[in-house]
Amino acid sequence: MAQQKKAAAIWLLLWLQSTAGVLGERTREKMYEPILGASCFRRLNGTHQTGCSSTFSGSVGVLHLINTDADLEFLLNSPPSPPYAPMIPPHLFTRINLLRLKDAGPKTISVVLLINRSKRMTQFSHELNCPNQYSGLKLHNSTETVTCDASNVANTWNRWGTGLLHEDFPFPIYYIADPEEIDKLEECFNKFNNFDYESHSLRSLCAVEIKSFMSAAVNSEVCMRRTNFINNLGGSKYCDPLEGRNVYATLYPRTPTESFDVDATEKFIVVSCRLDTTSMFDGLGLGAMDSLQSLAVLTQVAHMLHKLLPSANSQPDPKRNVLFLAFNGESYDYIGSQRFVYDMENLAFPTRSTRTTPISFDNIEFMLDIGTLDDIGNIKLHTLNSTPVAKQLLQLLNQYAKSTRYGFNVNIESNVGLNIPPTSAQSFLRRDQNFPALILNAAPNNRYYHSIYDDIDNVDYVYANTSQDYTKLADVNDAKNISWSSLQMKVRNVSSIVAMALYETLTDKQYQGNQVANPLLADEFFYCFLLSSDCPLFKASSYPNSPAGVPLPPMRYISVLGGSQESSGWTYRLFGYLLSRQEPSVPKENCTQLPLFYFAGLNGTGECRRTTQNYTHALSPAFLIDDYDWRSGQYSTWTESTWSQFSARIFLRPSHVHEVTILSIGIVVFIISFCLIYIISSRWEVLFEDLPASNAALFN
User: Fold this and answer.
1) How many domains does the chain have?
2) Residue 64: which H helix or E strand, with range?
3) What is the pLDDT of residues 118-159, one digit of tens each?
4) Is there a cis peptide before residue 172, judged by omega within 30 degrees of 0?
5) 362-403 pLDDT, tens digit each
6) Which domain does 170 fall in, by range?
7) Domain match, 324 and 407 both
8) Are residues 479 and 572 in the same domain?
9) Which of 332, 388, 600, 646 has the lowest tally of Cβ within 10 angstroms?
10) Which of 530, 551, 582 is the last residue of a domain?
């Protein structure tokens, strides 16, 4: 009988415990409401930390909607119940306002929410006025690049820049894009907070809690030293270097060899662009005008030349090739191009695994770097010095740009001097100012450079969705049912001009054909990178029956080792598919190792193709050199902090009076309970002297 009572008691305790857990979870669900969004995070370089972080346990602030400057003044002038969490629309998310909130301190402002109410927004760029201001071409031991004068904002490469991407904030900043989530916040604010402000301290208020604690601090040098020390003891990391992959391909396959000596007779024309973009918030930022347009042009140029020039043996110089390069991490002091230059200096490009000879700077005939193309109809060819190569290429570009036969109506002017745009070519010019680098760049006109709003609307893209063959070149008079004023046609025009000029450079013959770049390829390209990875072009460049891509555009931030490399992965596949030649005699089971690659193809049935694409490492040399001087400014030193979680939730924060009352009651109950236990334990002989013998034994 006693054993049965014990078992029953144990089961009763277990039931009470599980019931309490369920009730606790239900109570928790009633108390907190999650909010979906994206958080600002911390990055570091050799001298500073930038970005945002919450406190270790999470930052809590009372919601307050900012519609006017007067609403902001309310929070900055003795608010009644701090700390607050202002909800700020983009047009008020300015440098002046954010720095005022920062100066107010975490006791007044503990959280900032950026809400997607963009109707009154006219500009929104968080980058510096001079992007990569401290890492471009430098003269006379200067610490800043000489290619951009930050003191003359009107003539900088990003005159709308606020520099907030390079500021350090003592509170988390959380971006909320979903209208339903914003409505939820505003409803809570209006119901509990938006009245009788004088009594805020006397009642419960709607508040938000953000958890985005960053492990790293100070700068990259300190963070990496702590990480390496802890890792030696088997601990966790505090930060990781920004790291990704450059993607390259050659117009013609290179000859395999067992020799690793430079072939001086081999010559390359390098055509390059930037692969990445960035923004203040994790996982967001499409870089539509910033860098995606130039990647689209590079892809179209490569594809058109591939179609027009099928064999190197038919050219005047069979040893002449074109190297197409997409550099990753260029938003952070030219990580990809710096590493590429470093590898070439050490004859480490390409890697020995490719079984091809290394390429040196003497092998490069000239470099054409495609920069930002904000105004595609008005482009300049920038060079540091006036050279015969630059003059000849400018003449060829304008020959086709202004030809009445093609009707491109594009104007390309020359610009010689130090005022060159912040592109990958600066890494080459920094090594050698006489390097033959030419930069194709439009006048800066992007009001949303390096921000979450450089998206499909910023480039006015509309998907044509024609379901036609985009792998063939198009007739110059065939718009493929796409508007002549569309983004696709503008990319077609610039791509065709560049491809025609390079065609004449390679063949020594003027291009006389009617075929131009296909606007349908640009149409599918932008659909994949701006709207959805589950798209026809990505499917064709993947293995047959591969899982469909996610219905979201690929992330284009460089990330860290183990992070998302979607953009470089898809670019790798596109280069492979669009610059390859079909090998119908090779069966599927033998098409498994590079340079052979098995693609789904346009019809999805599968085809073996001989490719030329590959990766190179985009990791700054600063993390390879022993005892590197982190403050030297020679190489990029950017790292990204580690974190455990990003979360946001709203709840009712009790008033200070309520908290004091609950605490006081708890203290009183504790004292009374302590006294009762003391009395009972000291008088137990009297209280329990009449217990039956069977029960009394339990107390002995």
Assistant:
1) 3
2) strand 59-65
3) 999 999 999 999 999 999 898 877 888 999 999 999 999 999
4) no
5) 999 999 999 999 998 889 999 999 999 999 999 999 999 999
6) 27-126+162-234+645-653
7) yes
8) yes
9) 388
10) 582
